[in-house]
Amino acid sequence: MTTAVPDDGSCPDGHAEPLWSEWRRPRPTAAQQRHDIWSGLAVTASAVVMTVLVNSMGVFASGVAPHLAEQFAWSVAVTLPLVLRRRFPSTVLLVVSVLFIAGQARQVADNLVPSIALFIALYSVGAWAQDRTAARRVRLGVIAVMFCWLAYGLVRLLVHNAPPFENAAGPLDPMLASVLYGIVFNLLFFLSAYFFGGMAWLSARRQAELAHRAEQLRRSQEQNTRGAIVAERVRIARDLHDVVAHHVSVMGVQAGAARRVLDRDRELTREALRTIEDTARTAIGELRGLLGVLRAEPSDDVLDVRDGETSSPGLDQLPELATMAERAGVAVDHGIYGDPRPIPEGVALSAYRVVQESLTNVVKHAGARRADVRVRFLETSLEIEVSDDGRGRTGRPERSGFGLVGMRERVAVHGGELEAGPRRDGGYLVRARFPA
Are 319 and 210 contained in the same domain? Predict the structure, then answer.
């Protein structure tokens, strides 16, 4: 079963592709209908003027013409239906065809404008009829009837009122040439109306298809834009969380340590305050780098450097994370295994953020004394592992918050996998694997 296509060429359900072979041209607009009225009246006025001119010249192709008033009536009757040619094309063609033959049977003097009206009516069916099968049958039927009428007229003319052919000088028989001329002329006349009407309908269908494609493209662009905006918001939120949460956690731990030993150990207090200062400077540097990326033009490929920090930290900065965690009271072992190789900047940044968030959780929640950071360059992947000897699941908050979600999103962007959970022998393990 096929799905009908709406008159405007849109999808029936808003999603499926229209069946353009069953497309129906929309009904004429109010402006087009007004144009038909004025153009139909113009053709009618032309028919009246031509009738006056032909009668004034006394050139009657079919002998004696009827009274001038009757000729006016025939001219108006044949041409006036054109005011509805786009609203009821098939009906207008049938009416014009019948009146055209009847007018010729009455030997109306002017034959030019009625022929033009017949051409326009035949063209309009090809260009505007909704039912294409009925439109084709109506046009072919009218053409067949017109050729039968032409044959009758030629036979009647040649039998009852044969022209003298006094000045004939061509190689063909004058009567044969007259018949061939009438056939060829009318053939070109009707085929032109048929062809151009069909081309107008095909052109309208192509325009509707192009408009549909353009609308699809516009909607797709809107969806892509909305998706890009959401993705960018998530990325910004993730980066801000990674930068702020880690450094603020370290500063909080150091501030607490400084408060507890302020009156007993001035040297340890100074060390804690120095760590807070360095951590704050590092955090500001990373935030400036992040803001620099947000403010940069899309064509800018240069990393923004502020206070010695780049906007895209990577594997080379992992020892600095270990140092800050150690200053917060957690001993960190950092090791690299396998043959190091160049890593894409995006993967390196994600790996850095995974380690940063993991160490932040170790400092804040685990109550651990030691942590182990391992970077493994495997044959088909890069593996990042952070483990600790803390309280495991009981040391984690009841709700994962944004940290674990952010890590999963970062790893998923590169088609990697993330494992996070308590270890069997105590502590917590985070393992991220990025495909090489």
Answer: no
